[in-house]
Amino acid sequence: MAYNELLAKRIKASFELQPQMVKTHISEKKMFGGLAFLYKGKMTVGIIKEDLMVRVVSHKMDRVLQLPHVRPMDFAKRPMKEFVYVSLAGINLEEQLLYYIELGLEHAQHKLNER
To answer: Where in this chain does the record put each TfoX N-terminal domain (predicted)?
Structure first.
C-alpha cells in the first residue's frame, strides 16, 4: 500500500462538500509515492503512506505548525517550503480534515492569482 486508501476516500468525500465551481476542477495525480489532489493543476492536499500532506500559504505556516499532529514535510530529509504533514490523529474528525483541505485550496488559489 503506497498510501492510505481510506483517507483518500475521506478526502474525495470532503471535496464533494465544496462548491460546484471548486469540485469540478479537482483532479488526482500520483506524486511523491502517494496520491495528490490538485485544483486547476495546483496541488492542495495529498497522502503519503499514512500522512496527510497539505500545502499552506507562507504567512500561515508558523501558526499551522503549532497545531497538534502537524510537522514540516521533510520528504527529501529537509523541510519543504509551504508543505506540512498531518498525522491521522490530527484528522480524526471530518471537520479537521475539511480544515486542512480548505488550507490546501487556499494555497492553490493563491498560486493561481499570482500569475
So the answer is: 25-108
Q: What is the pLDDT of residues 10-43, one digit of tens each?
A: 999 999 989 998 989 999 999 888 999 999 999 9
Please tell me the distance from the alpha carbon of residue 108 to that of residue 102, in angstroms, as a whole number: 10
**First-to-last C-alpha distance (Å) of the chain:** 37
Q: Does residue 1 have a pLDDT over 60?
A: no
pLDDT recorded at residue 4:
96
Instruction: State the Cα torsion 68-52-54-9 to the nearest 10°.
Output: -130
C-alpha distances in Å from residue 66, one per residue of 20, 35, 74: 32, 25, 16
pLDDT at 72 over 70: yes
Which CATH code, of 3.90.25.10, 3.30.70.1400, 3.90.1150.30, 3.40.50.300, is assigned to 5-114? Answer: 3.90.1150.30
